[in-house]
Design brief:
It is a single chain. By secondary structure, this protein is of the alpha/beta class. The chain has a single domain (2-45, 53-253), classed as Alpha-Beta Barrel (TIM Barrel). It is 43% helix and 11% strand. It has helices at 20-32, 54-68, 84-92, 109-116, 141-158, 178-186, 188-192, 206-212, 220-232, 243-257; strands at residues 2-5, 38-41, 77-80, 97-100, 119-123, 166-169, 199-200, 237-238. The strands form two sheets. The chain has a six-stranded parallel beta sheet with strand order 1-2-3-4-5-6, covered by helices on one side. Strand 3, helix 3 (84-92) and strand 4 (97-100) form a beta-alpha-beta unit. The longest helix has 18 residues, at 141-158. The structure holds 6-hydroxymethylpterin-diphosphate. 6-hydroxymethylpterin-diphosphate (HH2) binds at residues 3, 5, 7, 10-12, 41, 44-46, 80, 99, 101, 121, 123, 169, 171-172, 199, 201, 239. 6-hydroxymethylpterin-diphosphate is lined by residues 3, 5, 7, 10-12, 41, 44-46, 80, 99, 101, 121, 123, 169, 171-172, 199, 201, 239.
Length: 261
């Protein structure tokens, strides 16, 4: 999954793709590089971020979705939003997956996904982006995150979402310390055992910075390490900024392991 942030303030690429044409070029480049899906987001959910507001999100997203529609045939589009009103606009413009970091927190989200027959990624977050890194705490992070995802998956299915339309995500960096993130990546099998594909987004995040001592612009190699480890632990989708490099790394990794890319 290639990341396309059409935000002024995303933690690693804010402001780079605000313009529709630049965004479409980047999406095409990621699709050509092997991204199986392009995730378009118009609200930063980095630690400390304040909500953009749905009107702002739609105003950022709509021109980009229009520029993308039909021009990135190699890769379906996903919309990274917590708001059903934003998801609706993106689905109308062709998005086939809603990537919801609040796992259906907006009461209108699951009904929309069910009605439109699109996919949904349900992600775990403790707290809200503005304060989630202040004091994250768990008893047993792996079982608590798995139980949350199982509950949200059940709610989605009760609401009419097809079970095979659901992807699960432990939410690396969303209300988690480095130790929590490491435990979740090591324990990914517990989340896979819920029976749905697992998505992991660790690219360029604070955990990579903590482990390598590198600033956000220098975390490419560390992010590749995280992507390979996530796939080794059972992830089916990795959400990344550097698609070409990740595809190459995964190709080599999976061939050596004998699984094929
Ligand atoms: N991480 C971010 C945003 N959306 N969605 C899922 N499913 N999983 C993630 O780990 C995830 C996500 C944060 O990363 P990024 O989009 O690079 O930054 P920002 O939130 O600042 O736009």
């Amino acid at each position: 999954m290639g990341i396309l942030n059409v935000t002024p303030d995303s933690f690693s690429d804010g402001g780079e793709y605000l313009d529709g044409a630049a965004a479409a070029d980047h999406a095409r480049a990621m699709a050509a590089g092997g991204a199986a899906i392009i995730d378009v987001g118009a609200e930063s959910t980095r630690p400390g971020a304040t909500p953009a507001g749905t009107e702002v999100e739609i105003a950022r997203l709509a021109p980009v979705m229009r520029a993308l529609a039909g021009t990135v045939p190699a890769a379906p589009l996903s919309v990274d939003t917590r708001h059903a009103a934003v998801a609706r606009v993106a689905i109308d413009a062709g998005a086939v997956l809603v990537n919801d970091v609040s796992a259906g927190g907006d009461p209108a989200m699951l009904p929309l996904v069910a009605e439109r027959g699109v996919g949904i990624c349900l992600m775990h977050m403790q707290g809200e982006p503005a304060t989630m890194q202040d004091d994250p705490h768990y008893g047993d992070v792996v079982s608590e995150v798995a139980a949350f995802l199982e509950g949200r998956m059940a709610a989605a299915v009760r609401g009419g979402v097809a079970e095979d339309a659901i992807v699960l995500d432990p939410g690396i960096g969303f209300g988690k310390s480095l130790d929590h993130n490491l435990a979740l990546l090591r324990g990914l099998g517990v989340i896979s055992s819920l029976g749905r594909p697992v998505l992991v987004g660790a690219a360029r995040k604070g955990m990579i910075g903590s482990l390598t001592g590198r600033d956000v612009g220098e975390r490419r190699a560390g992010s590749l390490g995280a992507a390979l480890a996530a796939v080794a632990a059972g992830a089916s989708v990795v959400r990344v900024h550097d698609v070409d490099e990740t595809v190459d790394a995964l190709r080599v990794f999976t061939e050596i392991r004998g699984g094929g890319a």
